[in-house]
Amino acid sequence: MGRGRPRTCVAPCRFCQRQFKRVEHLQRHERTHTREKPFTCHCGQTFSRQDLLSRHQRLSHPQEGAPSEQIGINSDHHDGHSEQYLTSPTDDASSPVHRKSLGVGGLDDQETHPQLLMSQPIAQLAAPTETSMVEPTSFIDSIGHDEFAFLWNDDFTPGDQPLPLDFFDTDQSLVDISHQYAAASQTQRAPIEGPAPNPRPVIYPAPDTIPFLSAPASITSRDPSALAMRFPSLEPEIKPADPDSVAPVTSYRPLSAVEHNRPYTCPWRISCQDYQQLSRDLSAFSELLPPSFQCPSRPTLSRYLEGYFRGYHDHLPFLHTTSSTTSLGIELVISIAAVGALYRFEHAKGYELYRVAKAIVNKRFDEWNEEATANLSDAPEAGYAGFASSLPDGQPSLVTSPRKKLPPKAIDGQSGFSSLRLLQSFIVLMSLTSWSDRGLMRDALSLASQVAMVVREVGIGQPEDEPDWDTSWDVWMQVEERRRTLFVAYIVLNLQCMAFNVPPLLLNQDVAINLPCCATIWRAASAKEWASTVHLSAHPGNKSFQLALQELYSGKVQGRFSAFGNYIMIHALFQQIFFARNANTSTPNTLDQDFIRRIEVALRSWQESWEASYDSTLDPSSPKGPIGFNSTAVLRLVYIRINVNTGPKRQLITRNPEEIASAFAEGQIQIGNRSPHLDRAVLQCIHALSVPVRVGVAFVARTQTFSWSIQHALSNLECALLLTHWLRSIAQSVEVSGPESLRSDERKLLDMAVSLVLETELADAIENMQYDGVGIRRLAASTIRIWAETFKGFQVFEIVHRIGLGLCLVAGMLDREIRGSS
């Protein structure tokens, strides 16, 4: 006897003849043709889907809970041409086009016939409509006015193109989703009276909870409800237009004389007295310094420090802006100066400073180790077996005594230097060696083990209590700096894992401390500003790392993370995928489907938190900092690694462009089955390519070194790798089985890639191509050439330059392959 409900015959779509297994799926699809909005809220707004109505009610009417009217929905086919269901000129209040997300919006889903799309030259493709096929004069005409508007929408600045969560729901078709977004974008073309709107995208929470620390934000939106987010911002709700409106600080502990009198400091400004002190500190290590070394002059040293703080620091912000050279210590100052010299393109001087910093840091590390082992030689001659029984009466055994929490500050050595400063110096030097010349690669891996050891000693595995906001600013700043330093160490070790496929020496299970606070509180330059910011912050607390990870996997994140917290958590998800792939030795190119579903739930939860954070932005030059932008690079890597095991094949650890290129040429990477999961990873690759195409490939090549971090180079390499392999697999499928073998989502992705190349100087290479195997291979060669061009500018770190050389070799190989097959 058969089990389950009986199968029913569902009629095809009345407009495009597409088949569906369930009636509700057919009804939802047909509404993309008819533009019906049958779900109505009591406030008058209408929606095409029940989930959009529910989201609107949750965000716009959270306290009312009033039921909404549902008009014209039943199991039968409804009249698709009823005027009451036609889209009005006003915006859909819950239109996902307005959401601040990490993917693409505004795709036009105009269903095309596979034979027409795949067999004719681009210049002869027709633009499909709901009822007929029109023959345009060029492919650009066939795309239509709203086709792929997410790439060129004037309402978004280059770095802030949204990519809604709906596009990563593998239960929905990219074609259906893109049609809905294109339909929404068409309703937003009504002329707007008055002055031109601000071209910046709306990325703020609702108007009554707008967080800012300067002048009130000017918000222009065609849809007021588009400002709503799932959660209010983590940032403080400060309105500083009137100084008297700032909350008084009297509710907090009175400021000490030290805090009142603390002058504003700039980390790279060095006074004559400070320089003399640094020179004396450096002379104490004269026996370790190379004979030819001369301490940089005060202006030169200041220039190098400025290079670090303006170029590198914001990507890993663990030092407070009020830090001074005297408070940092000589080992950290020289380490920072070495990286800063690279950012001033004085590489020879940077490497010289690195050698000096390494000698000093190693000396400090030896002293630190000596303190831990100094008393071992004085230990009594006794066996370990009788140790517990020989304890004095009343003293608890080490075996049974509870584990004590370390104080929330770095452990200071007897020699007077801080282990926290030692750890910070290690982190800076590890960053320099990981991404610089190949000759420093051994140092990078050696430093990683030292970083992992010191991090554990400083207390990354010790749980923390909730922050005490009644403490002084100085004490709070020390605690937060320690916390940020530990997480930066965790991130840099993870970045080594991403780049070189080495196991990270800090595991997720090793981390027990709380996540960092939001950037606005951290950047406060005075005790008064800090107290006011904390007072006006809705939720200044810090959630523990382990609790945050559990909530991501459950799909129910309580509250929000800061932008830095989001960055940490996406690294945690990447680490989970890395170990899952390495544990799966029987089928290393596949992951368990249950694991994939859990990761996708966590990714959706993570993106919701990313959206809710005020610091999150896709603009690398945003005054909010690049952390949100950097998070998206890791997000793309996560989507890629879910589908493709690229890590072992790229050979970045060799720094050899030919070995990097061999991953493309020799077919070492298997992309697995073509599935909706893989479609989402390819979509991330296409969206990553759209950023330099829209901004300008040559412009990005010459400016990315100042605002793009190392993870963008790693992400772009893997995006180029996956997109190229995917296009070649599509070409092979067309050659073997014809264009009918491609799914509609794959055709949509293929058209996206074509539309990008048509906007570049390589448009001539594909302008007259046909959608056959050769044409798609030519498209693959063009996309990899665009990626390679973005790496052709001056680079701070050698690894970025080597990645660019590897991509150039791949582009050349693909060009030769195409010429050989022509």
TrEMBL record:
UniProt name for this protein: C2H2-type domain-containing protein
Region span, Disordered: 52-111
Protein's GO biological process: DNA-templated transcription
Annotated localization: Nucleus
InterPro entries reported in the protein's UniProt record: VerF-like (IPR051059), XnlR_reg_dom (IPR007219), Znf_C2H2_sf (IPR036236), Znf_C2H2_type (IPR013087)
Bias (Polar residues) ranges: 84-93
Organism, as annotated: Clonostachys solani
Keyword annotations of the record: Metal-binding, Nucleus, Repeat, Zinc, Zinc-finger
